[in-house]
Description:
Blueprint: H1 13-23, H2 50-66, H3 68-72
Amino acid sequence: MGGFDEELAVAYNDIDYCFRLREKDLLIVYSPLVTLYHYESLSRGFDEDPAGRARYLKEKATLTARWAERFSRADPYYTPNLRPGLPESCYYAF
């Protein structure tokens, strides 16, 4: 797949990668047996300065333009069981 797109240097590169996988009919696999940690912005800081904010907005615009058609469709993995506002215990379908 070529890895992350360097045009999306910081933000949205993971989303773009997943969309490219799905475009090739590949699946994104989830395992409840694995615990992963991602400390967003830990090494680089937050985008609170004007340059960081401008980069973030540019990358957001790039992703939205690139995947406009994809964003216009419903999320194939959406479930109403995960709608915002529900207690955390409702997120699990047992």
